[in-house]
User: Fold this.
Amino acid sequence: MQDEPLRYEALAEDLTGIIVTGNLRPGERLPSVRRLSRERRLSVSTVLQALHQLEDRGLVEARPQSGYFVRHAAARRAPPSARSTPEAPVPVDVSQRLMRVLQSSMQPGVAPLAAALPAAGLLPRAALQRLYGGVLRRHPRLLEAASHIHMDEPALVRQLVLRSLGWAGPLAASEFVITNSCTEALALCLRAVTQPGDTVAVESPAYYLMLQLLECLGLKALEIPTDPRSGMSIEALDLATRDSRVAACLLVPNASNPLGSIMPDEHKRRLARLTAERGVAVIEDDIYGDLHFAGERPWPIKAFDRAGNVMLCSSFSKCLSPALRIGFVAAGRYRAQLALQKTITSGGTNPITQQVLAEYLESGTYERHVRGLRRTYERQVDAMRAAVARHFPAATRITEPQGGFVLWVELPEDVDTSALYDRAIAAGVAYVPGELFSASGMYRNCLRINCGNPHTPDIEDAVRRLGGLMTGASPASQRN
Ligand SMILES: Cc1ncc(COP(=O)(O)O)c(C=O)c1O
Assistant:
């Protein structure tokens, strides 16, 4: 692994930061190549290499004889990042509204576009069924000896260690705690490193469950601007942690929920270093890390952690089955606090399912299964993007996720997705209103759509009904 970025990469990252934080706006001209070369003490070809990288990312365009300009499409692709600086920390209050939304979305006959759940047909059900039977026959002791401290089945931990081999070097088996789901992993990490009243930096928009956890633990949310391509802004995090105490940073760097962004390695490296310097514990949710659409499996921030400061959390809910309820934390120097929290919360973790998972991973079929799943999710996300483009108001902006299976949709300003929710349920379609992804009530004109199901005619019809509702609510922007 390379520790220092190449010089052109460092320049490209700095320019990207200026654009995504809104300091250089669409249509504005970048400093000239000559000026950048002089001031940054770089050769002209290094500067050009950086600018070409920004062109590839769709952020800037070259205009003959005039220089480089921020593309308008860069803004279209970046719906939520209107702010360049974080808000002040705020208490969170989303839980009750969220529970109402999630409960109503589960009613029979309602199209499943709310919770981020994979369709049953995408899960390796037969293989898991066989393994459960086999494991119980071969290891009857698992039924007897379910000790309340069984939170690190060696066979499963070994598989997790092997899976980390590709990232800068394997994680240590002694770091792991096996949990009941990623939700439990995140809750334990927060409890291990925070006290009620503390501030936690989160992405904006943030996965609603994270806000709910902060609310229930009496923590304040500090919403950090987050780019739909590159994730949490490191510049804004730097600014936010310069003078105030932030106990933890909680984020989804790989295929974030809801934006689908993947943080570039260089940002991950900077985030790991910055947080270690400032004493901010990192809680990294990597649940979508295996579900990237292009290139190699993205590394987690943990791969860049030199201080044991990053807690890597994940589970098998998105790739194998949400019903397994098995997750894990590689907890770095917080392992002892985490094991204590786990013991007083739920004791151990189901030993039978730990063994089933260990054997599933040992069998070698996981890689093949996940390869197929990635392609399927990408197809479903593409189909949903096309359907939203067909049926929603013309000014609607849609993310281009780099992984996972949710879409974030920004509607014209006059559409209030919370106010429309009950009418959508009455029309047989669910979604998650955008304001539930913010502690400070932002994103009322946004919503998140689950693409975990095959894009059948029924789903297309549900999107059409939803689009009709949104278009009706926005007289100012009727489709032409
Ligand atoms: C980012 C993220 N983290 C965690 C979870 C919950 O995972 P689990 O089912 O393992 O609790 C989800 C599920 O939607 C998620 O999207």
Remarks:
- Residues 116, 181-183, 207, 252, 257, 285, 287, 315, 317, 322, 327 surround pyridoxal-5'-phosphate (CB under 6 Å).
